[in-house]
Write a structure and sequence with these properties.
It is a single chain. It contains 8 helices and no strands. The protein is an all-alpha fold. It has one domain (2-199). Helix 1 (2-29) packs parallel to helix 4 and helix 2 packs antiparallel against helix 4. The longest helix has 28 residues, at 2-29. The chain crosses the membrane at residues 35-53, 97-121.
Length: 200
Amino acid sequence: MKACSSFLDFHLYVLRGQAFSANTKFRWMGLKTSLPLPPWSVILSQVLFYFILEDFVFYWGHRVLHTKWLYKHVHSVHHEYATPFGLTSEYAHPVEILFLGFATIVGPALTGPHLFTLWLWMVLRVLETVEAHSGYHFPWSPSNFLPFYGGAEFHDFHHRVLYTKSGNYSSTFTYMDRIFCTDIDYRKQKALEVHEGRTS
């Protein structure tokens, strides 16, 4: 209930204010609304760029939120749930939501997409974060067929481990954690599970 209440409060009081000024901001970003729609090659390449850029920016922002002071005063709200579920994807301190929300909007701000592309990106981003916080590994999860995709299992590990050792800071893909070795404990755990599965 706490996550639901926080979710509603944030959307009613914080995002509503953002929505009123969104038209001006989006026009400044170069957002296009006219027909025809851009070619699918443009739409898909922009969305892929947004995912990669968002993951890079989110990784560093999330890693900073795991420093002692910011974790205690800001990010610990999101980690109140050791076993997250869909709504907890947006259950966080307002400062964190605005801080990490920058990662979501920076790609569109740089490219000035068509409104359709922006909506597609936002829908896919929300679906991804809800899936990562769902606690379920679905058969249709992108982690089954996309290399370097994190998914629920990857993010669940992040929520279960102490804040200083959690790693797995990426939002969508795992390449940043792999490059900077912040997924070592997760990889050790996965190797142990594989070994135990083979020996039992």
